[in-house]
Amino acid sequence: MNSEKIISSGFILEDHYPTFEWLKQALECCFPGVQVTHATTIAQAEGMLTDFAPDIALIDLGLPDGSGLEIVKILQQVSSQTLRIVTTTFSDDEHLFSALQAGAQGYILKEQEVDQIAQLLSAAVTGQPALSPKIARRILSHFKPALEQEVLTPRLTEVLQLIAKGYKNKEVAELLEISSHTVNGYIKDIYRILDISSRSEATLEATKRGLIR
Question: Which domains can be identified in the chain, with CATH numbers?
Answer without folding.
Answer: 9-142 (3.40.50.2300), 147-208 (1.10.10.10)
